[in-house]
Design brief:
The protein is mainly beta. It is built from 1 helix and 10 strands, in the order E-E-E-E-E-E-E-E-E-E-H. Strand 3 and strand 4 form a beta hairpin.
Length: 136
Amino acid sequence: MSTQWEKDLSLNGTTVGVFTYRDGSRAVVVSDDNVEGFRIMLSQTKSGDVGVSVAVEHSDDYPGELANYTHDLALDCGLMDQLEINDNGLFTAMGRPATASKWALNIGLTLQLPASTVPAVRRGIELARSIATDKS
C-alpha cells in the first residue's frame, strides 16, 4: 500500500485531511487550501501522543514558501497536554516531555491564525486525538 491522502473537510479556505502511510500510521494535516501560508501536521506517535509540526510562510520576500519551525523540536502532546485553538485563532501546543515526576516541564508554541480557521483546526485536533488513541 502506498501513502494515501483523504480530505476530511474544506472550510473557509482551510483544508483538513489525513495521510495514511505504508506502515499504517496516520497524520492529520491542517493547512490553507493552497498550502502557501501555513501547515500544521498532527502525527500519531507510538506512545499515543500527538506529534506537532508547524510550517508557516517564512518571508514577505518569498510569498507562499513555507519553513518548518518545529523541525528540531520534538513536540509531543499527550491527552492531558494543551493542544487547542481559541475562538480568536490562537493555536497553542504545549507538551510535557518525559521527566522525573517532581518536574513539570512544558515545551511548546503558539501561532496566531485567522479566526476563520478555528473550526477546521478544531476538527484537525479532534481527528488527531482520536487517531493517536486508536488501538486498532
